[in-house]
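Researcher: Next entry in the queue.
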Amino acid sequence: MSPRWEPNPDVRRGRHVVHHLHAHLVFVTKYRRNVFNDAMLTRCEEVMRKVCEDFGADLTEFNGEEDHVHLLVHYPPKVALSNLVNSLKGVSSRRLRQEFTGRVNQAVMHGRFWSGSYFAGSCGGAPLQVVKGYIENQKRPD
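Model: Structure for this entry, 142 residues:
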């Protein structure tokens, strides 16, 4: 008897697509100021988790230090990653500045919470060399 195939719960299905997209995102505070404490990181995670849900994405992992945060996001192909990033940074900036006014010195940060740039890396799935090899070995039609 052959083993039963178990579907991967991380592979999502839509009406016309099967997908498994993950991105590693890193956001840095403006001027790399040491702003975060444990309470702010916890609240930042809550806010970002809600933003992801609104986009149909999952915040799989979250962590950070005094001047930056790391996110692992599982997102659908209909979501432009840049739009998700803009919402994550915009909503979290607004909420954290409202809720932690004593901790966030607006004068030093010139009204901005996050740096204008960010890191985004694709992750998950097969290593790049494996995918390249698979594509190279596909049979071409005669």
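Model: Residues 81-99 form the longest helix (19 residues).
Researcher: Noted, moving on.
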